[in-house]
Design goal:
heterodimer, A: 306 residues, alpha/beta, B: 430 residues
Chain lengths: 306, 430
């Protein structure tokens, strides 16, 4: 078990997401904006257009969802998009094509693939890691894989130099925070609310405590997801987190009951750009407008002077 | 491992199967549940309370009924095969499900939680959970696939009568698997106040082990009853397998008895070649669903494939990890039974013995017919030429299935009677 508690993250580990988050913190004094969209919704080609829109309008890091039939940690908006992508014929192998196109389009934007475990298990964890690395991907976010069950993935991600983003929750014990911080590479994903993804009016007040606790457990970078939908919320979370993860609020402008004509799709992309810019402005304003008395302990492990 | 009895193997893994493939948000609750379960297992007061409920509320021990007129169709017309039914259908609420529900509900009281959620397919587990919630003054929400609420409308009304809220699940395939997804989402959101009363031997650890423990009473009683009635153990034990709780409950008492053959019967639906079935061992492969690694119906991308069965309770694309383990060990065998075979066995038991079984349980009956007929054809007997003893877990009663059976057989005035005529013709010929 001793290897399970050695911190795997830290400065200059070769993790592209960690390097980016560190640079934004140290040079721009702000949190990263992490934007989620699923592969293949409404089609693979249009999902690439939507992802490029995120990049063009201020997303720092892409979380690329793999559509899955049983997404137990996703709320209705992302479920609908995932189902739509599957209905439109999206395949797991499309992930690698989308990652490749994004990497070519914006080499500075790390692309992390968010996937439930069974599609990776079926593909083969080592083969998945190999093909993701070859396509230019940065790593995986695994919502239903805890480090305890992740031996195959830890081995494959080490071998292919990929990030491993595991989740923590407000219910995680200090022991589990240490385990998860130690086994993550890139950053730790703090699921701020006890709940599934979806837009909420208020981001849980426990998020700040969870970030502090996760840092104290040894994680240099903690990003917060589940519950952020507006620029104001992004600013609030960006004050204390290393990254702000947004999903449902970005997917919602794209939802439609059927195929959209080109002009209507263009309007949706414009809407998406607007939401993205609002969020991007939020993370950029967070610390500029934040009071000097940043919560005690919130930055103790980063070594950063605010 | 060598000195651990198969019947006592504990989680989180059964061979390479089982585990905890769930969001981190649930781990603390699973740990709490595991701790409470193990504390309760060592607490004589817990055992005494559960025993009292079994006796005074459920009506245990459930009877063992020999069914000679049914056995005559299972190769036993000359007395070479004897068939015994373990009558879980006579439990309060009409199935074996109550055993697990009462056990978990007592744990919930000990943990101080006030709200129960559960998934249900056929409605039997939902009814049992709603019943325990009423008995123990707990709030109760049942998730049920919209498709299943139609197939089992009476059970929906029954749950609501008992004070439960029934939420039809309208996403995905709208069946049991999607009800479990919704229940898991609810649990993630409300884990501090809520217990997810999972109804079968799958899901994340400790559910597969814990639910087996609460159902092992089925096999323990049946074993005693068989010894008392016949002087020996059964030669074959048959059960239907959806998630696999009734099967594991009755198998468990015989796992370490090498002479006893264990046979599980899955939903073959419209036949394996049709692709419309729930036969995980015939058509599935290693995968992860709902927290456990097991056999899974999935496509090349690891997407869960929709299952199909005339019985909502067997309509599930994965199977309990302990069954996957027993399958690989060769300790139990698993075969599909089609909708047609199950419905034929369903009607046969009604007509020969005056017992209306659940369609789920009718899959075990069809399996028993197959086992008995094969044995008779091969001249197989029990030891020393004694009759072959077949023990079948009659896991539930068929009141909930009357509407389905009426449609299937065309029993209502003006309804299509083709299926009924076909069956008459076959029976006449047989």
């Amino acid at each position: 078990m001793s290897t399970l508690t050695e911190p795997a993250t830290g400065p200059h580990t070769g993790s592209r997401s960690a390097d980016l988050i560190t640079r934004l913190r140290e040079q721009e004094n702000r949190a990263a904006l992490v934007g989620y969209l699923p592969v293949g919704y409404p089609t693979v080609d249009r999902s690439i257009e939507a992802l490029k829109t995120l990049v063009d309008h201020g997303v720092d890091l892409i979380e690329l969802g793999v559509p899955y039939t049983d997404p137990v940690l996703d709320g209705p908006v992302i479920q609908a998009a995932a189902q739509g992508a599957l209905d439109a014929g999206a395949r797991v192998r499309d992930v690698f094509r989308v990652v490749r196109e994004l990497s070519d389009y914006a080499p500075h934007v790390p692309v992390l693939v968010m996937t439930y475990w069974n599609p990776v298990l079926k593909y083969g964890p080592d083969a998945f890691a190999r093909d993701l690395a070859a396509a230019g991907g940065a790593g995986l976010i695994t919502p239903d894989l805890i480090p305890d069950e992740g031996a195959d993935w830890i081995e494959a991600s080490e071998k292919h130099g990929l990030d491993r983003v595991f989740l923590v929750a407000p219910s995680s014990t200090p022991e589990r925070l240490r385990l998860t911080a130690g086994q993550s590479r890139g950053f730790v994903y703090a699921a701020s609310l006890m709940g599934v993804t979806g837009v909420r009016n208020e981001v849980g007040s426990r998020a700040e405590q969870l970030v502090a606790d996760t840092r104290a457990a040894g994680a240099p970078n903690v990003c917060v997801g589940l519950g952020v939908s507006t620029g104001a919320q992004a600013a609030e979370v960006g004050r204390f987190a290393d990254g702000v993860i947004v999903g449902s609020a970005l997917v919602r402008p794209l939802l439609s009951d059927g195929p959209l004509p080109d002009d209507e799709w263009a309007v949706r992309l414009t809407d998406l750009a607007g939401v993205t810019e609002d969020l991007a402005a939020g993370v950029r304003s967070a610390r500029a407008s934040a009071p000097a008395d940043t919560p005690a302990g919130a930055k103790t492990t980063s070594g950063e002077a605010l | 491992m060598s000195d651990v009895k198969l019947s006592d193997v504990s989680g989180p893994y059964f061979g390479q199967y089982g585990g905890r493939f769930v969001p981190e948000a649930l781990i603390a609750a699973l740990e709490e549940l595991d701790t409470e379960f193990r504390k309760a297992a060592d607490d004589p007061e817990f055992a005494a309370e559960l025993q009292r409920l079994h006796r005074e509320y459920t009506g245990r021990p459930s009877p063992l009924t020999e069914v000679p007129r049914f056995a005559a169709h299972a190769g036993g017309e000359h007395g070479g095969v004897r068939v015994f039914l373990k009558r879980e259908d006579l439990n309060h609420t009409g199935s074996h499900k109550i055993n697990n529900v009462l056990g978990q509900a007592l744990l919930v009281k000990r943990m101080g939680k006030k709200r129960l959620i559960a998934e249900t397919g056929a409605g039997q587990h939902g009814v049992a959970t709603a019943t325990a919630a009423a008995l123990m003054d707990l709030e109760c929400v049942i998730y049920m696939g919209e498709e299943d609420t139609r197939r089992q409308a009476l059970n929906v009304a029954r749950m609501r009568l008992l004070g439960a809220e029934v939420v039809p699940v309208k996403i995905g395939s709208r069946t049991l698997k999607d009800a479990i997804n919704e229940a898991l989402r609810d649990w993630v959101a409300n884990v501090e106040t809520t217990h997810y009363l999972l109804g079968t031997v799958t899901g994340p650890h400790p559910f597969p082990e814990m639910v087996r423990q609460f159902h092992r009473i089925i096999g323990e009683e049946a074993r005693e009853q068989m010894l008392e009635r016949t002087g020996r153990l059964p030669d074959v034990v048959a059960a239907c397998v959806g998630g696999g709780s009734n099967a594991l409950g009755i198998f468990n008492a015989f796992l370490d008895e090498k002479s006893v053959e264990l046979r599980g019967f899955e939903a073959g639906g419209e036949g394996i070649e049709s692709g419309r079935h729930a036969a995980r061992f015939s058509g599935g492969a290693l995968g992860v669903l709902h927290g456990a690694r097991s056999y899974l119906l999935q496509d090349d991308d690891g997407q869960t494939l929709p299952s199909h069965s005339v019985s909502a309770g067997l309509d599930y694309p994965s199977v309990g990890p302990a069954h996957a383990w027993l399958h690989d060990l060769g300790r139990a065998t698993y075969e599909p039974v089609t909708d047609d075979e199950a419905m034929e066995a369903f009607r046969l038991l009604c007509r020969t013995e005056g017992i209306i079984p659940a369609i789920e349980s009718a899959h075990a009956l069809a399996g028993a017919l197959r086992v008995g007929q094969t044995a008779a054809a091969e001249g197989r007997t029990g030891p020393d030429g004694q009759p072959l003893l077949l023990l079948v877990n009659l896991s539930g009663r068929g009141d909930k299935d009357v509407a389905t059976a009426a449609r299937w057989f065309g029993l209502l005035d003006g309804a299509d009677n083709v299926a009924a005529e076909e069956l008459e013709r076959q029976e006449g010929r047989g």
